[in-house]
Amino acid sequence: MFDVYITRAGKYLPNEPVSNDDMEGILGLINETTSKARRIVLRNNGITNRYYAVDKQGNITHNNAQLTHNAIKELYDEDFTKNDVELLSCGTASPDNLFPSHAAMVHGLMDNRPIELNASSGVCCAGMNALKYGFLSVRSGNTKNAVCTGSERSATWMLANKFNNEIINLKSLEEQPVIAFKKEFLRWMLSDGAGALLLEDKPRGEISLKIEWMESYSYAHEYEACMYAGGDKLEDGSLKPWQDYDAEEWLKQSIFSVKQDVKLLDEHVMRLGSLSTKNALDKHGVNPADVDYLLPHVSSNFFGGKLYQALLANGVDIPEEKWFLNLSRVGNVGAASIYLMVEELMNSGKLKKGEKLLLVVPESGRFTYSIAYLTVC
């Protein structure tokens, strides 16, 4: 078994940062009406800037594969080129196509040579699942290196024109032409971007991050879906998939929109996240006091204080001055968020050899959690 190190980190955030006041101008007005929910959601999530792969004129500028490839290119130099990559492992919740896989589409842009591919689906944990695949490959000696990515292109899912047919349908039924909060909520939460990490079996440069371990926990056997797309939830909590709807219903009911059961989220996401973190630390005999930096992927600052209290309730006391967050500056980028945090901290000049980093990523899709423990080398 080989040690595994994150030796380089790259990112790509498209176009200029988008302020809260500029969001609706880019995403558009649903039913030509200013959103009543926007200010409430933004006040709670604390995000002040985010990035969209859509310019201010409404033109789409990048697809997901292009965002990911641009982040990967940040890993290259004369000592490590595209032809040195042995494994590409990509995670996203918003691939450009149902198939070929997201990893295959990214590899097509790399224009290098035959390599091993892995594509991880899901929501926020898709990026961590991609990282774990690369970690296990290098650790086992299957490959000497792996490029792992997390990326999202969510803005195009949230454009107002995606909801036009549902509004027309509601009007024809003489119902109030208002999109359900479970659909509109995420219009003000999600953004675009990509991060990439190079994993190798030896440290490189001034700073590397040794991956000590990674753990994942799913609670899908206990709880129904909380965040979903490409289907709709029935009264019994099950999901009816898009293939089972007539084609005209896809538009009339915005079946492909991203939806969030906010009540279910608030009830379970922090409690299960703190329990998973506790279990992972106990399994590996890690004292929370030894953690120098906690990098929690929280979708909203609203959950920051709740997460701290939930961790305390499980005996995990990591003071908030040890937390590293960039949510307000880059937005909630789903599977890419943890990559963007690692990249920013790794390249900040703040890290000192021997320090410990704890990564905690929740996924509200059906409540999955990924935790990783790193040592600065």
Automatic annotation (TrEMBL):
Q: Locate the Beta-ketoacyl-[acyl-carrier-protein] synthase III C-terminal domain: which residues?
A: 281-361
Q: Does the keyword Transcription apply?
A: no
Q: Which residues form a coiled coil?
A: none
Entry-linked CDD domains: init_cond_enzymes
**Domain of life the protein comes from:** Bacteria
Q: Tell me which UniProt keywords the record has, alphabetically.
A: Acyltransferase, Transferase
Q: What is this protein called?
A: Beta-ketoacyl-ACP synthase III
Q: Which organism is it from?
A: Flavobacterium suzhouense
